[in-house]
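Researcher: Let's run the pair from yesterday's discussion. Sequence first, then tokens, for each.
Model: Starting with the first of the pair.
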Amino acid sequence: MNRVLSCRPTNEAIRGEVGGFAAVIRYYGSLRREIEQSGGLPYRLTALGAWAASRPSHVRFFFREVGLNRYRHFVDLGSGDGIVTCIAALFTRATGIEIDRELCSVAGRAAQDLNIEKRADFICGDYLTQNLHKADCLYIYPDKPVYELEKALDGWAGTLLIYGPHFSPVNLKMVRRLDCGKESLAVYRNPDAAGPANFAV
């Protein structure tokens, strides 16, 4: 079943996670201003692909709609400067995996500065070399097809969140689609896997 929602603020959205989310917004807003003032952009090519900054209000909307707080362990595949992982840590335990050492360092410092290092941690490396089966929710904003990731997830019973409409998995089933402005998030599951994480959204 594909369910499409639009992004509208609600009273619950205004009340929920206000303190933590506001702190993340302030922190990353300041960080992005520093980057822009030094002539940089919130975009970078890494050894394995491209990183571009995500829109935090859209990410939070998607995480609320998916019910991220019911997952045990969220992993961001290609976490860049860590903003998505830090937002996820407002809902559950979150890990970001990033190949770029400088971005990984920025993300780790953000988790410390935001006082969420007990809920958010970062691994500097290639996510395809990690044991992803330990997570019950994976997130990726892909810049290329996800064939290798699909192979790594063979038999996995969790939920894969794919930000953006460009690269869909071949063997996983989309069970839900969310829209927020011009952004979208698709929720995928392995139709052949059985396990506690493979429940309906």
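Model: Moving on to the second of the pair.
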Amino acid sequence: MYMSKADKMVRLMWRIFAGMGGLFVGIALAVALLQFQNFERRVAVQAQIVDFGNGGYPIVAYEAEGQRLTCQLNFRSSSMHSGQPVTVYYRPENPQQASVKEYLFPLIFGGIGGVFLILGSVGLAVLRRGQRRREQVFYHGRRIKAQITGYGLNYSVRINNRHPFILTCQYYDADSNTLYTFKSRGIDYNPSQFLAGKEEVDVYVDGENYRNYYVDLGSVLPNVKVVQG
């Protein structure tokens, strides 16, 4: 089955979205796991915000290993205020350095990755569904001969600053006295020289359902390699 560069580019785009999303989610999970393991080896203690230092980062006071200690945290929030109790965590071998649990980075990074992953997965699922539908019609549908009525640029699609061509054709069903019009998938090049002298193109339809169809470009156009300057 013919697949245009536009189809390939769209599929590649959704794969990149899904791949980047999966990578972001994986990194976020790895960072969250490392942070969790890090805090598992620390001792939790109640502290109190006593002041704010450079950059607005809170300074907390707490007791650890029999000592009254103060430490400036590397995390701040607009909701923090003097006198506020907070839970801090320190290493027994270094009680002077304490920190709070915060998973802001993995949450944001993972959230962005999740959006990309969902968008990419949904996009790929839609493409696969459409591809399966076309394959079903192509391999199991009814073939008809449609009259080629013309070709032109598809201005609704733009790939690398170029619009793909599409081929239009018609089929008259005498039994129902109905004229059907079909449009092909995108064509990467100007098909005029290959359509010279050709009047018909194969179209596959799903039984009597002419809305579900596939225009077989391979029946009139060669599978040529396109090199754009």
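Researcher: Give me one sentence on the second I can quote.
Model: Helices lie at 5-40, 104-140, 192-195.
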